[in-house]
Amino acid sequence: MQSFSEFIISLTPGFTPIIGNNFTHQDYTPVDLSEKNPELLKLEAASSEAFSVFINEYLKNKNSRVAFGGYNELRTLYNRSELFNNPENNRNIHIGLDIWAPAGTEILAPLDGAVYGVKDNSNFGDYGPTIILKHHLKNRTFYSLYGHLSRKSIENLEIGKAIKQNDKIAELGDFYENGDYAPHLHFQIMERLEQKCDDYPGVVKKQDLDHYLSNCPDPNLLLKI
Predict the structure, then answer these.
(1) Is 56 helix (H, G, I), strand (E, B) or coil?
(2) Phi-psi sector, 156: left (phi>0), alpha (psi -120 to 50), beta
(3) Of 31, 79, 174, 218, which sits most exposed with the smallest number of CB within 10 A?
(4) Beta strand 66-69 with 28-30: parallel, antiparallel or unpaired?
């Protein structure tokens, strides 16, 4: 039997768009948001507006329109939020894929599925409006998560609604509604939801990393950016 990572690779033959608005494969460029990037030191506790400026300047310098990256990346930028940085729980390793694009950018379903969970995870530094899809393909069931959406994206969204590949499922939210981040999509794939339905950790602590990397493979195995 294929490993879950091998299965995810097999689902799409090549680049699979997850954002609309006429972005193409050539519009993407990788960005390093790890603790090793010295440019981020001055932004450790910076505002979402300042981080937006950083991303926009980075894209301008790269002559690109969309930045992506972050899987299994140790980040210091979560230090500003007690959700991640507190005496009981220091979570700072990102296990999803971030796609940095303007607020209002359309989010597209990369695969057929159905709406499984919907919630505004409204804590400071959290996902904000979130959608989880359930997929059953090639006799295997798994889940995908879309975080930092606009609030209107989840208004009246019905659990169980069927979703087809390339359907518009949401739009990116702005900082005042997306958990206080520069606009971006947090995309994550989970083999198991582990008794959750409308939330799942996207940032974890080192002690739990092996478990989460096993359950949450690199989303770029699917998107092939």
Answers:
(1) helix
(2) left
(3) 79
(4) parallel
Residue 116: both structure tokens together: 């499984």
The token pair that represents 26 in the structure block? 């050539």
* Alpha carbons 31 and 77: distance in angstroms, whole number: 14
pLDDT in tens, 98-151: 999 999 999 999 999 999 999 999 888 889 999 999 999 999 999 999 999 999
- DSSP 8-state class, residue 12: -
**Do 182 and 52 form a contact (C-beta atoms < 8 A)?**
yes
Q: What is the set of domains in the chain, with CATH numbers?
A: 4-223 (2.70.70.10)
Cα–Cα distance for residue pair 13/10, rounded to 1 Å:
7
Strand partners, 142: 135
d(CA 190, CA 203): 13
Give the number of residues written for the chain: 225
Q: How far is CA 157 from the centre of its chain?
A: 19
- Render 165-208 in DSSP notation, one character per residue: TT-EEEEB--TTTTTS-SSEEEEEEES--TT-SS---SEE-GGG
Quote the Cα angle for 8-199-18, to 5°. 45
